[in-house]
Amino acid sequence: MAPAALFEDAPAKLNLFLHVVGRRDDSYHLLESLVAFTDIGDRLSATVRADGALSLTVSGPFGALLTESPENLVLRAARSLRSRLGVSAGAALHLEKNLPVASGIGGGSADAAAALRLLNRLWEGGLKEGDLAGMGLALGADVPVCIASHVALMRGVGEVLEPAALPAPFGVLLVNPLQPVSTPRVFAGFRRTGCFAARAAHDWTVEPDPHRWLHHLAAAGNSLQAPAETLLPEIATILSVLGELPECLLARMSGSGATCFALFPDAPAAASAARDFGARRPDCWVAAGRLRG
Ligand SMILES: C[C@@](CO)(OP(=O)(O)O)[C@H](O)COP(=O)(O)OP(=O)(O)OC[C@H]1O[C@@H](n2ccc(N)nc2=O)[C@H](O)[C@@H]1O
Ligand SMILES: Nc1ncnc2c1ncn2[C@@H]1O[C@H](COP(=O)(O)OP(=O)(O)O)[C@@H](O)[C@H]1O
């Protein structure tokens, strides 16, 4: 009988707001970001390999854009956990790649975090979330927040996390123009034209009234949106269409782009908006769901 597979979801991350608040000595930018997760994502499975090898296969709508090479973040995470645990165990991993790659919703980071959680279970590593988050930072700045995949206020380059709360189970629509924007070029654009934002005065760690929460969120922004729009004007076009959809509460770009999101009162409203947007723009990747609480 084949060994039983374990599964982990790798939910898309959204930077509900993202402010660049400074710069480190190594020139990485210091961020302040309210990060939330969706029920849209990749899915990872693993079974034990008796021969001790690590292997990866990839399927799904965006699978062809990724190689199954050792550099895939899933295999990098697997090697790093194996060396941390000092085990000789192997695993056959399979990634269903549903999220566009390098698109500001942290698909690679979510996959790496899912691999750490999954293999910690498969190999009975016994590491706590905090241990996995510490290991994750070496794989990518967004990996620590993706370990818990719970709404959080993220600071530093991603290593400082404070649990936060959502006031309502908002519906969410994600749209990606299927054109890449380079994260280093977006940060370089910010350096030329952007200004550091002031640190947040609002306390995002408590769960306030939804209307007030949305008011504070609308007053925040994404410091990387303007430089990304300069590189890819299509982002501004998408945001203006999203903003006009019935019941849209807020439309913004996530991360360094190019994925844009819109919040809705609930998942059915987001699904209806997805049909509307998809009919107008069949050239875009469109996905609807809701924010995870
Ligand atoms: C912008 C964010 C926000 O969540 O999300 P994504 O757009 O990747 O989803 C992340 O901070 C992305 O962090 P990370 O995943 O490390 O970005 P990478 O693609 O590795 O970084 C590429 C390059 O962008 C610049 N960079 C990145 C992060 C940062 N805080 N400051 C920077 O200056 C650096 O020049 C770096 O070499
Ligand atoms: N499993 C993976 N999924 C997505 N990207 C991966 C993966 N493994 C390696 N990468 C590489 O990581 C980079 C960042 O991808 P991703 O996390 O999707 O970006 P973003 O955070 O902007 O959404 C890409 O250049 C991609 O080639």
Give an overview in words.
Residues 213-277 form the GHMP kinase C-terminal domain. Keywords: ATP-binding, Isoprene biosynthesis, Kinase, Nucleotide-binding, Transferase. Catalyzes the phosphorylation of the position 2 hydroxy group of 4-diphosphocytidyl-2C-methyl-D-erythritol. It is an enzyme of class 2 (transferase). This is 4-diphosphocytidyl-2-C-methyl-D-erythritol kinase. The structure is a single chain. By secondary structure, the chain is of the alpha+beta class. The protein folds into 2 domains: 6-163, Ribosomal Protein S5, domain 2 (2-Layer Sandwich), CATH 3.30.230.10; 171-290, Alpha-Beta Plaits (2-Layer Sandwich). 32% of the residues lie in helices and 28% in strands. The chain contains 9 helices and 10 strands. Strands 1, 2, 3, 4, 5 and 6 form a 6-stranded mixed β-sheet that branches. Strands 8-9-7-10 form a 4-stranded antiparallel β-sheet, with helices on one face. Helix 1 (73-85) links the parallel strand 3 and strand 4 (90-96). It is globular. It starts with 5 loop residues before the first strand and ends with a strand. It binds 4-diphosphocytidyl-2-C-methyl-D-erythritol 2-phosphate and adenosine-5'-diphosphate.
